[in-house]
Each structure stands twice: as C-alpha cells, then as structure tokens.
Amino acid sequence: MESNENFERLIELGFTPLQIERLHRIRCIYAEREQKEMTTERRRLEFARWLVSTGRLTDEIVEVAAF
C-alpha cells in the first residue's frame, strides 16, 4: 500500500494528521532499532563463524583441570 493510501485510510479511520505523523515517527524509530539489532546479531554470527573457521571454537568438550 502506498504512503498516500495509508494516510487516507488512517484519516478515514478517524486519525488526525498529527496522530498520523506521530505514528509514522514511532514506526521509523522501531525500524531503526530493529536494523541496529539485526546488525549487532549479524556481527555476533560472523564472529562465531570466524571462531569456528579458525578452530578457536569447536563442538568438542574439553575437561578443565581442577586447581
């Protein structure tokens, strides 16, 4: 659905232009936050892949000597 169609539909539903603008801002904030979280998660996954590819992380269980 196009932005103008969204705006018109919200007006039909009884929202004021100010309320529509606020909804749009909130939606943008959440989209930005989600993008940042995805970027962070992607970095973590890339780091984990690097650990595995360099042999620093394996599925082997290593016993730790007690001191």
General description of the model:
- The chain has 67 residues and is mainly alpha-helical.
- It has helices at 3-12, 17-53.
- The protein is rod-shaped and about 70 Å long.
- The N and C termini lie far apart (65 Å).
Whole-number tally of structural domains: 1
Order of helices and strands: HH
**Shape descriptor:** rod-shaped
- Bin the helical content: over 70%
Low-confidence blocks of residues:
none
| Alpha carbon gap, first and last residue | 65 Å
Question: Total strand count, please?
Answer: 0
Biggest sheet character: none
Mean pLDDT: 89
Q: Indicate the structural class.
A: mainly alpha
Note the total helix count.
2
Q: What value does the Rg take, in angstroms?
A: 24 Å
Residue share in β-strands:
under 5%
